[in-house]
Amino acid sequence: MRFSGLAFQFVGAIVVARILGAEGFGAFTYATTWAIFIGMMLALGLGELSIREIPGYMARKKSGPILGYLLTLAVTVSITGVIAVLGFAWAENTGVLVLAPGWKLVAAMAVIHAIVLSLSHVLNGFQRILTTQFLETIVRQIIYLMLILGAVWAGTTLTPGRVVSLSIFAAVPIFCIMLIVAIRSWQNQGLEAAKPSIHLKLWVAGALPVFMTSFANRLQLDMDVLMVGAMLTDFDVGIYRAAARGAMLISIANMIALQIVGPMLSRALAENQVDEAQRLLRQAATVSFAAGVPIIAVLGFGAEFYLGLFGPEFTASRTSLLILLASQATIVLAGADAILLVMLRRERLVMLVTTIGVAMNFGLNYVMIQRWGIEGAAIASLIAMAFVRILLVSSIWRTTRFDTTIAQFVTRRG
After folding, report:
1. Do 22 and 238 meet the contact criterion of CB atoms below 8 Å apart?
2. CA nearest to 286, candidates 313, 322, 326, 256
3. Residue 191 carries which DSSP code?
4. Three-class SS of residue 342?
5. Which of 169, 198, 227 is the last residue of a domain?
6. Phi-psi sector, 403: left (phi>0), alpha (psi -120 to 50), beta
7. Can you give the pLDDT at residue 124?
8. How many other C-beta atoms can be found within 10 angstroms of the C-beta atom of residue 367?
9. 76, 204 contact by CB (below 8 A)
10. Is residue 142 part of a domain?
């Protein structure tokens, strides 16, 4: 489903790029990157934490804390959503951040994204993971693509603002379906109505590290696009985003490996089975490498063809794509570094290293974009990503003697 969803996303991006051109696509991308980035933060980590809290309460048939948690999540998103709307309005009125679609549309997209994402996490807590993935990665993308093609067929002139509006409309039916699924999941669990029980201190203590880590990771991911948009033109954002979207495919290889061995690795560590844990880390590294290298090779040798799918203007970002491929390759080579530290309850180390990487990425982007444009942004991303991976891998080796990298497979074979 993830690969099918990615396929629909790519088709949608190519269609939008063909319709809007590089400059219009850049304006749309810059605005939606801000909306998604802000939207992911509005739940303050409570959305992600629901995946841990709700199953525990369900197992003990405690409906009060579940209702309290859902109420706390809803209130949090409502309050932070209002703050986000006011923030976007202030930023545009003062000239700090002027986005082509206008602050109202971007703010609406951020809030809608936060609501749908939070509800998605809640459904994962109710063990409706496949349903959630299907709705988010496939159904939503199909609706979005159909709306765009329908607008083109109707002869509507699409602008960045109108495409943002279509993206918002595509999210509304997904929210409604998810809400129905959540209500039915509650009923199927046999949970009875109860007075909401709120454990705010406990939930905030658990959500804060998750929020900080998600914030740093997302900022690390979007830093180059946001700074290219702030320092260069919409045209530069458009062609750079096309390159970055292709390079991001490589990270899917690592994600697949972690989904395959993640639960077994967690159990092995919990039972202190060191040899078994190392074997699983070796498998994860092998799967990540085997899936990632072909993607790198195809995009590397077919860079002109891939970028040409978006339009002839986009081939100007070929060099950036090659550098970004090298950047994402560091993730493939490092293996399950961050997830291993999280399983070992060393989230603070991951958060610290990621934060340092974000700061480094910001400084490098600021200097290099001025000198080398979008290629400078790609180089900054490569250096920062390599730094984070080296620091995490070396920390793991020094403190645990676990090896998460592909080198362990080569050494063992040798």
Report:
1. yes
2. 256
3. P
4. helix
5. 198
6. beta
7. 81
8. 12
9. no
10. yes
Residues 6+ apart with CB under 8 A from 226: 30, 33, 34, 37
Spatial CA neighbour of 132 closest among 72, 179, 166 = 179
Please list, residue by residue across 233-255, b when 16 or more beta carbons sit within 10 angstroms of its beta carbon and e when fewer do.
Answer: ebbbbbbbbbbbbbbebbbbbbe
State the pLDDT at residue 198.
Answer: 83
Each residue of 254-287: pLDDT tens digit?
676 666 666 677 677 767 788 888 887 887 788 7
How does pLDDT run across 345-390, given as a tens digit for each residue? 776 787 788 888 889 999 999 999 999 999 999 999 999 989 988 8
Query: Position of tokens 């339009």?
Result: 311
Give me the DSSP letters along 352-382: HHHHHHHHHHHHHHHHHHHHHTHHHHHHHHH
C-alpha count within 13 angstroms, C-beta hemisphere, residue 372? 14
Distance CA 332, CA 323 (A): 15
Under a CB-based contact definition with an 8 Å cutoff, are residues 347 and 213 in contact? yes
359 and 252 share one domain = yes
315: which DSSP letter? G
Distance CA(365)–CA(327), nearest Å, equals 14
Tell which wins on pLDDT, 154 or 216.
154
**Helical (H) or strand (E) element with 404:** none
DSSP-based three-state secondary structure for 346: coil
Closest to 329 measured CA to CA, from 378, 398, 263 = 378
Cα gap 23→239, rounded to integer Å: 8
Dihedral over Cα of 364, 366, 372, 375: its sign? positive
Place of tokens 């990270």: 251
Token duo for residue 98: 């002027």
Domain that holds residue 160: 2-198
The whole-angstrom separation of Cα 400 and Cα 414 is 23
CA atoms within 13 A of residue 36's CA, in its CB half-sphere = 16
Structural domain includes residue 269: yes
Q: Examine residue 325 and state whether it is found in any structural domain, yes or no.
A: yes
Is 377 among the domain residues? yes
**pLDDT, average across residues 19-26:** 94
The verdict on 244 and 369 lying in the same domain is yes
> What total of structural domains would you count in the chain?
2
Amino acid at the residue 391: L
